[in-house]
């Protein structure tokens, strides 16, 4: 099973982050589903994740990671120097998530909401779960 990223499909920052990940994941390690999608909702139920969770979520090896933990585990798999961020995982999540939560709380105000979905190429489309 590949690693699955659940993201807020209407958040400009979130969808831009997905595009950023795709560009740095040429092996196709990650698949994607929006939290609002049918598949996203199924995965939330399957892993007993609160359905009101609007965080970035990574499902990997039958475990899930949220917020900064998810972001750091994703960074570890990306091409380039992004792997160098992973050692930050030693900082306790409550401290790491202070910064994550500030951005998450203000993401619509700072980055806006999407009115339209991105239209991926057929190769990228197969990485998205419906």
TrEMBL record:
Pfam families, alphabetized: DCC1-like
Recorded superkingdom: Bacteria
InterPro entries membership: DCC1-like, DCC_oxidoreductase
Protein name: Thiol-disulfide oxidoreductase DCC family protein
Organism: Evansella tamaricis
Lineage: Bacteria, Bacillati, Bacillota, Bacilli, Bacillales
């Amino acid at each position: 099973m590949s690693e699955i990223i659940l993201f807020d499909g209407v958040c400009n920052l979130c969808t831009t982050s997905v595009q950023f990940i795709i560009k740095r994941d040429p092996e196709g390690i990650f698949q994607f589903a929006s939290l609002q999608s049918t598949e996203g909702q199924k995965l939330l139920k399957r892993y007993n994740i609160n359905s009101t969770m609007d965080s970035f979520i990574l499902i990997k090896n039958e475990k899930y990671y949220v917020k900064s933990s998810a972001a750091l585990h994703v960074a570890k798999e990306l091409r380039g120097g992004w792997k160098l961020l992973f050692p930050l995982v030693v900082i306790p999540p409550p401290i790491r998530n202070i910064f994550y939560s500030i951005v998450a709380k203000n993401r619509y105000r700072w980055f806006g909401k999407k009115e339209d979905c991105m239209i991926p190429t057929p190769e990228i489309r197969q990485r998205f779960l419906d």
